[in-house]
């Protein structure tokens, strides 16, 4: 049976690799055909540090997605992030073609000129995305889509995302060594935003905060377009490391403790109790107060959200964020995150789940940790990177009917490292124990 309009997203994270295979139905909704997930320890802070481990993790996640979807995966839209990614605002102006009606060719020329206007792109960096922010055709301002508009001159601005060639190459190398072809590379804050934002939020002004394992990503949308983004090198793994140090336990035990008993906001943590903690290498079990676990987690989560607040304030767009903030990613699942963020940011908060999913195995991806990979799928459809596949019970026999298209995509920026506030806060905590 021929299955049309299928796209695959590949999210290579610091703690996990996720793959989703989906098709778009007649209503424009994403029908998930299969997903795969594997543990990842080949990256640090969204940067590849071990090629072989990363390749193995990709292969394991792809194999799961192939079994579940009965489709042999070849082309993927792969996400990229990290503090090496920067964004540059670039202005552009062109003359409209002789017909006086803006067409797709005019838009392409506009974006190409925006790229050439970059003054400080060295040989160590390459462009990941060129995202139009606003078009002005003659005196008609605030256009997000100028095609079909009449005029003689088109000007405006674009949001250009660049990253280090070596780090982008390492990600691509891992994907290719896993036997996959790269249909596109997408900046992950763009994908996360696409997955969790509602259109009215995007137009009103919203900040999307994706708390992952190795990095926390911030993206601000105003008037329907991305205006600012930043990658912060503090995230969920730091919470677990703090907890492992505080309770003197293995990292894996601390992660389980965080998931089972963790809370990011002491005011809602409930009654105190003694938590039983597994000893290291045959040592006896011990107990630790739940209130102390909460204090450790709250300290680091507050630091993360304070860094997000500083990022928003640096952007200059704080006053324009009328719709508040959306927090997504695995870190958003900690109870109390929403309440803590509201206090620190002074914004209305909601937890972001993937939007626009219907049918298939919808429930299996209805989780903030799948926001990025679902956004990668949505971004692939938006940029016409879907394929047609022969669908049969044996994934190994499936061949794509349409060659994988190679394309480049859109967006963001870099981050200042964490300050010393968390160190002072943690020292104070240990002194009080």
- Counting helices, strands and paired strands, the structural category is alpha/beta
**How large is the share of residues in beta strands?**
25-35%
Determine the N-to-C terminus distance: 64 Å
**Uncertain runs with pLDDT below 50, 5 residues or more?**
396-423, 425-433
Please explain how this structure is put together.
- This protein has a domain at 87-160: Dna Ligase, domain 1, CATH 3.30.1490.
- Strands 1, 2, 3, 6, 11, 19 and 20 form a seven-stranded mixed β-sheet that branches. Strands 14-13-12-17-18 form a five-stranded mixed β-sheet, with helices on both faces.
- It has helices spanning 51-69, 104-116, 165-177, 188-196, 199-204, 236-247, 251-261, 290-315, 337-345, 371-382, 421-432; strands spanning 2-12, 16-24, 30-39, 43-44, 47-48, 75-80, 86-95, 125-137, 140-143, 153-164, 181-187, 206-211, 216-222, 225-232, 274-277, 286-289, 325-328, 349-351, 357-360, 387-390.
- The radius of gyration is 23 Å and the shape is globular.
- Helix 1 (51-69) crosses helix 3, helix 4 crosses helix 10 and helix 8 packs antiparallel against helix 11.
- The chain has 433 residues and is of the alpha/beta class.
- Strand 15 and strand 16 (286-289) form a beta hairpin.
């Amino acid at each position: 049976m021929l299955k049309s309009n299928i796209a695959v997203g590949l999210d290579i994270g610091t703690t996990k690799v996720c793959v989703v295979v989906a098709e778009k139905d007649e209503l424009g909704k994403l029908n998930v055909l299969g997903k795969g997930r594997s543990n990842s320890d080949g990256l640090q802070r969204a940067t590849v540090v071990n090629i072989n481990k990363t390749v193995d993790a990709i292969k394991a996640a792809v194999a799961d997605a192939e079994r579940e979807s009965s489709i042999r995966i070849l082309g993927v839209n792969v996400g990229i992030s990290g503090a090496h990614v920067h964004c540059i605002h670039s202005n552009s102006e062109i003359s409209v073609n002789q017909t006086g009606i803006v067409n797709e060719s005019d838009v392409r020329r506009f974006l190409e000129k925006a790229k050439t206007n970059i003054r400080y792109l060295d040989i160590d960096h390459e462009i990941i995305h060129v995202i139009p922010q606003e078009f002005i055709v003659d005196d008609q301002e605030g256009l997000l889509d100028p095609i079909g508009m009449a005029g003689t001159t088109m000007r405006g601005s674009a949001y250009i995302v660049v990253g280090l060639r070596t780090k982008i190459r390492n990600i691509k190398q891992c994907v290719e060594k896993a036997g996959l072809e790269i249909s596109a590379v997408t900046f992950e804050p763009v994908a996360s935003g696409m997955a969790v934002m509602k259109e009215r939020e995007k137009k009103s002004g919203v900040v999307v905060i994706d708390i992952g394992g190795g990095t926390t990503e911030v993206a601000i949308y105003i008037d329907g377009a991305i205006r600012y983004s930043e990658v912060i090198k503090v995230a969920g793994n730091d919470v677990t490391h703090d907890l492992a140090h505080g309770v003197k336990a293995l990292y894996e035990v601390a992660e389980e403790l965080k998931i089972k008993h963790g809370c990011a906001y002491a005011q809602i943590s409930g009654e105190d109790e003694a938590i039983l903690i597994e000893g290291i290498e045959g040592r006896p079990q011990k107990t630790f107060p739940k209130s102390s676990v909460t204090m450790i987690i709250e300290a680091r989560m507050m630091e993360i959200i304070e860094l997000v607040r500083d990022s928003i304030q640096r952007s200059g767009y704080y006053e324009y964020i009328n719709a508040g903030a959306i927090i997504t990613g695995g870190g958003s699942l900690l109870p109390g995150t929403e309440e803590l963020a509201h206090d620190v940011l002074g914004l209305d908060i909601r937890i972001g789940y993937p939007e626009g999913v219907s049918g298939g195995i919808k429930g299996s991806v209805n989780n903030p940790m799948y926001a990025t990979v679902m956004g990668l799928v949505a971004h692939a459809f938006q940029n016409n990177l879907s394929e047609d596949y022969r669908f049969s019970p044996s994934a190994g026999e499936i061949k794509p009917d349409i060659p994988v298209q190679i394309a480049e995509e859109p967006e963001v920026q870099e981050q200042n490292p964490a300050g010393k506030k968390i160190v002072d806060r943690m020292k104070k905590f240990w002194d009080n124990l």
